[in-house]
Amino acid sequence: MKKLNLLFIAVFISQIVSAQIVWDANFEVVSPDDGLESIYQKIVIDANNNLHVVWQDGGGDMFVKYITKPQDGDWTEPITLNNEERNCHTPYITIDPNNNIHVLHGRWAYENFNDELEYTFFDGTSWSSPKVIAPGGNLYTGAIKTIIFDNNNNPIAIWGSDERTGTYEVYKMKFDGEEWEEPQIISKPDDNRTAKYPKSVNIDNLQYAVFFLERNQSDVRKLKFKFYDIQQNTWSETNETPDFAGEVDNVAQYDVKYFNNKIYVVVSYINNVELWQYDIDETEWENIAIIDPGYTCCVIPRMTIDNYGLLHILFNDNDATIKHYMYQPYNDEFSTVNQDIPVNSPWYPEAICDAQNNVNIVYYDNSYPSENEEIHYVLGEYQKPYEPEIIFPTEDQENVATTGTTLEWQNAGDEVVYDLYFGKINELELIETDYNITNYDLTEDLQEDQNYQWRVVAKYQYAATPGILHNFFTGEQVSVNETNNKSITIYPNPSNGTFYIKNPQGFKNLVGLVITDITGRTIHKSKSVIPNSQLVINKKGIYFIKIQTENQIFTEKLIIQ
């Protein structure tokens, strides 16, 4: 993949793609206008497409505030999550696989002049009482933090900038269902180095990647990471990233996201931003793009990824606007778009994509209506082509002719082209790209009594429909499960999200696992399979599980209810 320099291509492509995100002309103030500073906001989205936001509020005594916005509803009134009037600050919020909400924040303890780490969670009915889980290590304990989960969905709190050993380290604490363990170091820097700023990403509910910055005595900051295996409850050795930022590896700020077996890292240094990609299977890093914001500043980039794998990178600039960049992995395009998102004096924009691929941004602003910061919300509505309506062969159509078959669909809109996929079950191949008519003649004869699949994806330059996967049959319909050897099965099926691989005949060489959704998109891939191990898919729908031995391939259709 060729590295792209945004300085040269930004103006041209921004005109092409800017129409795909339409920003609301009016931002919304969501924090209470109480004359106090509202800063350090975080936003997440749950499985029901509800937004959740926390922030730090207050001047002297500070509070942790929380609001939520149901899908197609209004923001709720803010509530206070900490239960004491003391300096509670820099909250972090996340959602576990059971759709419960977890919040960590720092808490300044007057009695011992140290910073503590406080935790609370919401189980769908009520918030738990805030609990101090980590005694103060120093002034900065809990300033930067994250949460991951074990195979029982118990939280593991991770935080940095803690110097209880005499130097800054990254710590973890695990909750075993009854109590929190003692703090344990996971960074272990050498040569008097310090470790800070942990961030984490969930990789297909099988492992987490936890990143942190390590700084040496010369103030050169290196980004490192390690993996946590959810099933085995084990940590990998510490891994190093490449030398970001050219000759001098001096990462100032960063953000990480995961999609389709790749980890994306956006890093900033001095006055540039770089986007990198880590292939988990190949364990290889690749520099995708270098962004020149156009000014010298400590840029704090943030990133979110939509359901199609489109990356959105945002940060504020000196012109009091939010810079917005987009990268689409399927065509290696990357460009600046919508440089004038209609906001005032934004700071530290945080973003999340919802189920409709809209971009939801919260930021704080100290220019409206007074000098006190307030939390603002703005929506970028995703524009995409219409979903092509299939004319022939439609879903589960039987007795389709083996010769002279034509795939047909309705026009999905103006200035739209199509990618066309066709093949047998789990052998889907791209047979046409940027196709500009709405029918396709299959030139090769089909096999008798065979199950075939196809889908058509309508797309603009930076927007595409997922394309519904359609099955048809050249004989009478036979279910996917009935066409496969039952020596390997998936149970329970249908499932509520948690399922297992059953191997009653004791195949020892299960060498590959691929899970695809109904659109044909791979949502999980691994090179080994552990029989009877627990797997989790959080999103409802139909999935295909393909398990490979050394000489056989077994396929099961899985329904998540």
Describe the protein's architecture and organization.
The chain is an all-beta fold and 561 residues long. Among the domains are: 390-473, Sandwich (Immunoglobulin-like), CATH 2.60.40; 484-560, Immunoglobulin-like, CATH 2.60.40. Helices cover 2% and strands 48% of the residues. The protein contains one helix and 45 strands. The strands form eleven sheets. Strands 1-24-23-22-21 form a five-stranded mixed beta sheet. Strands 2, 3, 29, 30 and 31 form a five-stranded antiparallel beta sheet that branches. Strands 16, 17, 18, 19 and 20 form a five-stranded antiparallel beta sheet that branches. A hairpin with a 3-residue loop joins strand 44 and strand 45. The radius of gyration is 25 Å and the shape is globular. Residues 1-19 and 477-486 have low confidence and may be disordered.
Provide the gyration radius in Å.
Answer: 25 Å
Summarize the amount of helix as a percent range.
under 10%
Work out the helix count: 1
Please mark out the parts with pLDDT under 50 across 5 or more consecutive residues, or reply none. Answer: 1-19, 477-486
The main pleated sheet reads as: 5 strands, mixed
**Briefly, what CATH class of the domain at 390-473?**
Mainly Beta
Q: For the largest beta sheet, what order do the strands appear in spatially?
A: 1-24-23-22-21
* Strands, total number: 45
Into which percentage range does the β-strand content fall? over 45%
Query: What do we call the CATH homologous superfamily of the domain at 390-473?
Result: Immunoglobulins
> By helix and strand content, what is the structural category?
mainly beta
Distance between the termini: 39 Å
CATH architecture of the domain at 390-473: Sandwich
What characteristic shape results from the CA principal axes? Answer: globular
Indicate the CATH topology of the domain at 390-473: Immunoglobulin-like
Provide the residue-averaged pLDDT.
Answer: 81
